[in-house]
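Dear all,

This email documents one entry for the complex benchmark we are building for the journal club exercise. For each entry we list the sequence lines for every component of the assembly. Then comes the predicted three-dimensional structure of the complex as a token string, followed by one or two observations. Please use this as the template for your own entries, and keep the labels exactly as they appear.
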Amino acid sequence: MIIILTGAGISAESGVKTYRSDTGLWEQHSIEDIATPEGFERDPGKVRAFYDARLDAVRAAEPNAAHLALSRLERESQVPVLVVTQNVDDLHERAGSRRVLHMHGRLGAPVCAGCGAGLPGERLEGQPPCPACGGQARPDITFFGEQPKHLEEIAEALSQVTIYISIGTSGEVFPAARFVRRARKRKARRIEVNIRRTRITNDHRELRHGPASIEVPTLVREILAEQLELDRQEGAGPDGQN
Ligand code: APR
């Protein structure tokens, strides 16, 4: 199985802000206020306004060549492909990827902070109290200190990984930053795509250090060509003749 872990860097060229760059979200907003259960408790309106604004930004963005290349890989690869994303945008799905796990949640899916029930519509602001328990709306986003989503499915997939690719993630957040180590244990091929070195660069064997919109389409072409070549060789008899 090919597993791709994506971070904010894959959406940067679509105009969606990353978190930890000089102009990143965490430079302009306090994590404690915006992305913790305590911050939500203190000022839920501020948190709702922040994530509604992020939803608007994502709605104004388009998938880029990196997203499109991954959906092509899913369509054409002879082995299963799974995208595990830390991103809360829907650019993978809008690019055509179907097997996508959002381990940190997603924008545009308000839930009740009380009972967890899904709430109508996409926006947080203006949501009436939860019809089931009277609770207030919160984003379906994993706040710091909360359990990420889909960890069992991800662990199951990592137990079958043959190629592991990290794209546009700083490797600063766990457990996502640890996945490459599980891939190493499986002796999987490990490739990092990023514009610079990260804290998990040394856990990878191949480095594609450049913009995702350039590096990912190239990498996808190579992987598909390798599969075809393998096919051709396997198709050919011991004497190399078909
Ligand atoms: N192409 C490739 N990589 C890029 C590009 C690009 N065009 N632009 C930026 N990057 C890289 C940066 O070098 C950096 O390593 O993307 C990474 C973005 O890192 P972060 O902003 O830390 O984002 P991410 O790794 O996704 O953050 C993980 O932290 O704040 C939490 O829950 C949030 O899911 C998020 C998690």
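Observations: The chain has a mean pLDDT of 96. The pocket of adenosine-5-diphosphoribose is lined by residues 7-9, 12-13, 18-20, 24, 86, 104, 168-170, 172-173, 193-196, 198, 211-212 (CB under 6 Å).
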